């Protein structure tokens, strides 16, 4: 048998073993084909193929969600008279949040973790293993919320859906942690690329937000997934659904002062948006209401805001397109402001109120029980701020104001400050407006806004609470790896215990029969009293010291104790502070559980690092 045939035969045997081991006789035909290809292709080739499959799947999910929501919006907003629209604005946003909460409670058993933080949590805490339910739950929930008028965006749910698709694909074909994380990011990348028809922005999103501190040499699957998601969006979505802006002015360096000031304004507005979100979240958490009643409260607030200011209904992209196309009059005519004399200062006041109330509308949508993200709200608010800034400049007396460019740059500035993602914002607007000559103003505003945001808070407030709880880490790669470990996996549940009431001679006999070198002293109820090691009793074994009368004279109080819920990073810090290598773990009632060693955690970290680096 020549070398080529031998390789084919070994590949066949490996596939046969996998077929039997993993129960592939129940697999679908396409899964069998992919399993066969997994055995025949090289690692790089299979990852390339995986990027295509995951990218197309996540992109298709994004197309379905965008189309569904667009059709619902079109029905509500375009085919009824103004008076009936007001009734719809009063009813549908309320129903959207309440129905979403009912679906979460009854169908998804209360599991409603959402937003970009959910993806980071799965990467850091769950070894990039995402529940298969998230492949469709986010679509269902966000379609109900945003489709019926929730003032939030679809991009975060699409990203979570894509991440779930990538993770579950990797789980199906038994890929390692590194490949699983890569395909999770590829799915999220394709989702963002599909939502905005912006592949480069999707890639920037992955590297800037999801994979912070992570270095990948295999970035090709991300590129392929982004291209597939963007192509599906371009092919399948109607022109009016696409996030596209065709009208803009060419860049003129004389307008740089406008962009500098707008960068400061959007940075300050982004901070306002974040503070309002935090206040509303804190307010709703403090309420002693059931989940359904909180949804009803949030839905009522949102409906009231949408009746007064219809631009707050849904994602708001149509409003931004109206700004860039010069159709501002139509926005006013669809609200109660139509009954007032419309002048320039009327429009300015109206848009100012819209900007200020958008933060409340989005926060009540998300935190009261709806499902959505801050992508669309930050873009909407930034575009509105940019247009408002342009109108004020015109009223002051400046005639040559690049109105459309200020709308586009304002979108990038607000998004950069709210999401802490300047590169994603820059490329997103540049791709969506075909405005690559706008890179300079986009960079100016985005960087200024980002620096202002960082000055107020070093990390994104969306992730701050999770970081405070130790669920994710936002600075170093090794911390992210350590957060993927679980303390329970390193506890020695077979640790040797000795009752405090036995004699020293009995203790010596137990020691002779034990293969442990550290012991826990417990009482009759297994409560921890102390600990000692072989070094503590060695002097008594060889007669160097008089044998004490009881164990209490030998044992020592542990310098620290742990609980199973403690994080590995925190445990390692305690080990470093105390200078010991073994410490006891107890439960809530101080009952001894087992010992945990510094070396076992470090070995687990090295194993994960090895798997990640291969």
Give the secondary structure arrangement, pairings included.
Blueprint: H1 3-21, H2 29-40, H3 43-78, H4 82-106, H5 116-125, H6 134-147, H7 155-172, H8 177-196, H9 199-210, H10 220-236, H11 256-286, H12 291-308, H13 317-325, H14 328-333, H15 344-367, H16 375-396, H17 403-419, H18 422-432, H19 439-456, H20 461-468, H21 477-483, E1 491-492, E2 496-499, H22 504-513, E3 518-522, E4 528-533, H23 534-541, H24 568-578, E5 582-586, E6 592-597, H25 598-613
Parallel strand pairs: 2-3
Antiparallel strand pairs: 1-6, 3-4, 5-6
What does this structure look like?
Among the domains are: 19-236, Clc chloride channel (Orthogonal Bundle), CATH 1.10.3080; 485-613, CBS-domain (Roll), CATH 3.10.580.10. The protein contains 25 helices and six strands. It has helices at residues 3-21, 29-40, 43-78, 82-106, 116-125, 134-147, 155-172, 177-196, 199-210, 220-236, 256-286, 291-308, 317-325, 328-333, 344-367, 375-396, 403-419, 422-432, 439-456, 461-468, 477-483, 504-513, 534-541, 568-578, 598-613; strands at residues 491-492, 496-499, 518-522, 528-533, 582-586, 592-597. A three-stranded antiparallel beta sheet has the order 1-6-5. It has a three-stranded mixed beta sheet with strand order 2-3-4. A hairpin with a 5-residue loop joins strand 3 and strand 4 (528-533). It is elongated. It starts with a helix and ends with a helix. 45% of the residues are buried. The model is unreliable at 12-16 and 19-27 (pLDDT under 50). It is found in: Membrane. Keywords: CBS domain, Chloride, Chloride channel, Ion channel, Ion transport, Membrane, Transmembrane, Transmembrane helix, Transport. The chain crosses the membrane at residues 46-66, 86-108, 182-207, 219-237, 258-275, 295-313, 347-369, 375-393, 405-430, 436-456. One of its GO terms (cellular component) is chloride channel complex.
